[in-house]
Amino acid sequence: MPRRSQATFQNVTHVLTRMREGVSLKSAAAEYGVDPRSVVRIGKSGLRKTASGRYAAKASDPLLRVLNVPVLGGRIEVGVPGSRKASTVSDRSNAQRYFVNTGDV
Predict the structure, then answer these.
(1) Tell me, what's the pLDDT at 100?
(2) What are the pLDDT digits (tens) for 73-103?
(3) Measured between alpha carbons, how far is 46 from 82 in angstroms, rounded to an integer?
(4) Contact 35, 43 (CB under 8 A)
(5) Which residues contact 81 (CB under 8 A, 6 or more apart)?
(6) How far, in Å, are 31, 69, 76, 98, 100 from residue 72 at the CA level?
(7) Spatial separation of the C-alpha atoms in residues 76 and 67, rounded to whole Å
(8) What is the pLDDT of residue 2?
(9) How far is CA 53 from CA 41, 47, 81, 91, 98, in A?
(10) pLDDT tens, position by position, 27-55
(11) Cβ density class 39-63: b for 16+ within 10 Å, e for less
């Protein structure tokens, strides 16, 4: 995928995350510099239409996220399918970083 498309796709996942925090589609898309129509087109599996016709983010989505994961000797990029799995990997990575920085289990 071209770099520009990668950036757009990544920004769409960020928009969905912001929408889960209560921000509107239009505001979240503007925050990340993405056209709201692109968010609907690319992230439709993570959106639902409300009774009023507006879009709201679902509790989770199956979109791919690429995360930097610490491993022995450095970091690697890992493709993680879905927001829930990405959160799990991120929580583990944060716990590892906390342990390395503080030594506290």
Answers:
(1) 87
(2) 889 999 999 999 999 999 999 998 899 899 8
(3) 10
(4) no
(5) 62, 63, 64
(6) 36, 10, 10, 16, 12
(7) 8
(8) 86
(9) 16, 12, 28, 34, 43
(10) 999 999 999 999 999 999 999 999 999 99
(11) beebbeebbeeeeeeebebeeebeb
CA angle at residue 36 from 61 to 27, to 5 degrees?
95
Identity of the residue numbered 15: V
Place of tokens 């979240």: 28
* Distance in angstroms (rounded) separating the CA atoms of residues 33 and 66: 20
CA distance 29 to 81: 22
Contact 46, 83 (CB under 8 A): yes
SS3 of residue 52 by DSSP: coil
When pLDDT is averaged across residues 7-16 and rounded to a whole number, the result is 94
How many CB atoms neighbour CB 22 within 10 A? 10
